Amino acid sequence: MTLTRHWIVGPGALGRLIALRLAGTAEVTLIARRTLPAEQTLITPEHAALVRRVDVAHIEALPSPPPDVMHLTTKAHGAEAAHAALAGHLPEGVPLVLWQNGFACQPRLSERHAGPALCASTTEGAHVQDDARVTHAGHGHTFLGSLDGRHGELAARLAETLASAGLPAEAVDDIRLRLWRKLAVNAAINPLVARFGIRNGELRDAAFRTRVEALLAELAPILAAEGIAPPDGEGIAGWRRLVWQVIEATAANRASMLQDVQAGRLTEHEAILAPLLSAAEQHGLAAPDLADHLTALRARADALAQPGGGC
């Protein structure tokens, strides 16, 4: 199977980053629910402007022929609806790549998709400037693999394709572990920066440092009960080292959840916090701070859903 034709479903920051990087070496179509300019500009981390033309198609008027691989880059809460709208138009066996944060839709879509399903865990950073411009805020790394441990050759080939386009990637056989690790980091950072409207680096201030530590104290036993170890060290010390390293490395960043709040969009609170709280309940562990953040973000989502609430 070739990996020449790529559909990117969900033209937000990450989707357009992947599309514009791949467009130099592959046939790329952005699948959207609204009209976007075909000429797109990517501002690189080195502050260069990379201008490329990509095909743009409406989700209800899909192009032909079908893709060799479909990348689903919508937010987690929109992933299953987007897949349902597209799955019937794909030949059986077309690979699906899930780029969502958290650990909510990935197991369900991996079982539902009629073909290989890979999950991606990435630290690439990007944010949208406007309909024709996206900024690649910082170089990162992407891990690819399937939850059932299959399709290693496909993951390796796709990783090579991404790497050759300027997005370093590698195939792994432990993608569930890597998704949970990213989930833990997101849970310690995103709810705080979203609720208080701060950049990641401000979590180092005394007023917020104690809040991060309180979340780490809840996260560590939940992750231990799930058999998820930090990449360096053991227990809470390992998670503390990882989270603070990420905060330092991304100090100037506006986390994705903060970007969503500032843009009046729904956040990925359910995909990030709900799996952790479900695991806590299953293992009989208390997580009042995580629950408080989820309650607050759910209340915001309910307000957005009201007439005149935006979003």
From TrEMBL:
Pfam families: ApbA, ApbA_C. GO terms for molecular function: 2-dehydropantoate 2-reductase activity. NCBIfam families: apbA_panE. The keyword Cytoplasm does not apply. This is 2-dehydropantoate 2-reductase. The keyword Cell membrane does not apply. Coiled coil: none annotated. Residues 174-291 form the Ketopantoate reductase C-terminal domain. Catalyzes the NADPH-dependent reduction of ketopantoate into pantoic acid. Signal peptide: none annotated. It catalyses: (R)-pantoate + NADP(+) = 2-dehydropantoate + NADPH + H(+). Belongs to the ketopantoate reductase family. InterPro entries: 6-PGluconate_DH-like_C_sf, 6PGD_dom2, ApbA, Ketopantoate_reductase, KPA_reductase, KPR_N, NAD(P)-bd_dom_sf. It is an enzyme of class 1 (oxidoreductase). PANTHER family: 2-DEHYDROPANTOATE 2-REDUCTASE, 2-DEHYDROPANTOATE 2-REDUCTASE-RELATED. Its EC number is 1.1.1.169. Residues 8-148 form the Ketopantoate reductase N-terminal domain.
